[in-house]
Amino acid sequence: xxxxxxxxxxxxxxxxxxxxxxxxxxxxxxxxxxxxxxxxxxxxxxxxxxxxxxxxxxxxxxxxxxxxxxxxxxxxxxxxxxxxxxxxxxxxxxxxxxxxxxxxxxxxxxxxxxxxxxxxxxxxxxxxxxxxxxxxxxxxxxxxxxxxxxxxxxxxxxxxxxxxxxxxxxxxxxxxxxxxxxxxxxxxxxxxxxxxxxxxxxxxxxxxxxxxxxxxxxx
Length: 219
Hints:
The protein has helices at 29-41, 50-56, 59-62, 95-114, 134-146, 149-152, 162-173, 179-183, 202-213; strands at residues 12-18, 72-80, 83-90, 127-131. It is an alpha+beta fold.
């Protein structure tokens, strides 16, 4: 996985990938849970034997395990049926690329074994965008966390009234995104202190998400 522009420490990146031929990569709560556990376990400078840990530990126990120093700090994530988003910054040289390689390889091996298949699961190497300024970084935080709205209503943009309130509740309780960690002030996979503190309270965060959800010209 060779990239012309190296990832730089203290800079922020939007990372994403989707299933080959836009196929579903998450088809059950077990699939989503496995990827979330890998987000935690693969984020380590140590060569953690992930398969052994997952065989002997319950979901909640995985996030209590010692994993060594992290490769990256994750600011946001969201898992959708056929793709995923991660907002991250590297903490060590080469950390971001190594983390993504471990993450995608680990999940692909699990998925192929579970579904008796072979070959590539993802459409190619993960893609990345540099969040080079505060305005774009803050936008990405909202964009990533609002992704689940399209599962509730594919045409949600421009909705008004009660439907928007229903969408807001759906987004805030979606179990496969980091928004729940922020709203509960219980970071496990994410490392909020490594990112700008745009929101000083739970109420301010909810208001920000609501503002974007109700924005008529949301991109």
